[in-house]
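Progress report, Aim 2. The chain analyzed during this reporting quarter is listed below.
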Amino acid sequence: MLYSAFSPSSKQTASPPAADGSAKAGTTAAAGAFTARTLQGVQVAVPGSRPSVLFFFSVGCGGCGPATHTLAQVQQAVGTKANFVAVDIGPGETEQDITDFLTANQATSLAYASDSNATLISAYQVTQLSTAVVLDASGKPVFRAVEPTADQIRAELAKVSA
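Predicted C-alpha cells for the chain:
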C-alpha cells in the first residue's frame, strides 16, 4: 500500500501548488527547490532565506494527521524563524482534499505543496509517509525522522537557526 502512495499518478486533478522542482524563467533551481503556498495564498520558497521543515503526508495516512498537528504547534512556537511546509504525496489528492486535511488537523497555518510526480520524495530521499525533513537555510537536509516529536523538531531548528 505504501508503494502506491509513492508512485506517480497519471490521473489529472485540481492543482495544488506543484512541487515539480522547476525554476522560473531565468533562474536555476537546486534539486528539491520548490514553491509552496499557504491557504491564504502566501508563496513560500524552499529553500528560502531561513531553515525549513518539510512534512511528507497523504490525506489517508492515519499517523500523518497528528504529526501534522504537531508540526503546526512547533510553527506557532518558533514563529518566522523557519518555513513549515506540508508536502502531499498522495496520487490523485486534490487541493480541496489537502485543505480539508489541514483544517481537520488544526494545521491551516502550514504552507503546502503537492508532489504527485514524486520529485520531492526522490530529491529528499523520503521512503515513508509521515516523514519530517529539516533543511538549513541553504536547503541542505540536516535531520529527518518519521513522526518526530515537537521537541525533536525544535532542537534541530535551534541548531540551524543559530
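The helical segments are 2-6, 64-78, 95-104, 119-123, 150-161. The CA atoms of residues 46 and 118 lie 16 Å apart. These observations will guide the mutagenesis work planned for the next reporting period.
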